[in-house]
């Protein structure tokens, strides 16, 4: 019976591990939502969520290469296999292409990590100093550690994306689950011991330590490819093979920062740390829901790319319909549950619930989260073709939401959330669906 239920739900090891990892993120996010108002005063809560949004600036330095790696490796691996010794077998030219990709990425990500630590760290510190209400001594040390650990984690991104492209989605998801459990347990303990904003460092530090150890003991294939001698005729050419896809992904990723991360710092700047904390808490809840809701789609992305590389259109569409329906059902159910639980806690007199945005704001964010589930899923399907049709959608949505965040944050959380949700429902979603039809119904 359990096996039949797993087949009905479309859950294999990779989906299960991804669901467990992202499901834990909802549980951890929920407990954090409860603990932060208990152990941080309103001003520090605002700093906590603003700092979390500012670390999202790493998107500006990654330039979309993680997504490019996943798709490129998946397409190459459709014609290769990994033997019992963890070595690649198959066409030598494709092995050389993967080896050249690994070497190129290692150089770029080390450079990008150094840039992030210096530029984003400095810009974030200036922003918090200029707009904040706390003395630098209460947040600067935590911000520096957070930036350094995030920079180190950025150097690990290509290795993890490479392993996911090789079909090891479940193994990477299991690592992320362990990281999150260790990091959040440490953070909650630090909060209860009165560590204040220093507690925010524990999750990225745990990720740094555990990822480094895991890659040293597990990523034998990556190390082999780094040492491999490459025939220059087979080497991957960045301008020819990556740049046409990457620059579009990079601009879409940059736009994603303005769409999902900018609003909380805008509220911090315009309405103060306390209001930023309320809105940041609400966004954290729905971002966690979106992350878990799209687990089915994300876990099957390498499989979609493999079907495309092998021209298996019917299998591709059947797979996508299944994962989309499961992702959407989960997201709708989760959003409805949030809208029931929050007012129920208020009715029971749980005063900490007042530290989250009011119910009308939550309802608007729930609508946006549901629409984004469809947008994320359709984008994953299209990007599995190694193209990025979402660029104009992302740039336009980012521009509109930036204006909405700047103007709306002056008026209030409800007005800003209404503008954000309206743009998502009336611009981003229909435009994405129009693009998706071209891929779901290719010309004969």
From TrEMBL:
InterPro entries: Poly_Biosynth_Transport (IPR050833). Keywords: Cell membrane, Membrane, Transmembrane, Transmembrane helix. It is a multi-pass membrane protein. It is found in: Cell membrane. It comes from the Bacteria. The chain crosses the membrane at residues 21-40, 108-128, 140-163, 197-215, 249-268, 280-299, 319-342, 362-382, 389-406, 418-436. Belongs to the polysaccharide synthase family. This is Lipopolysaccharide biosynthesis protein. It comes from Pelomonas parva.
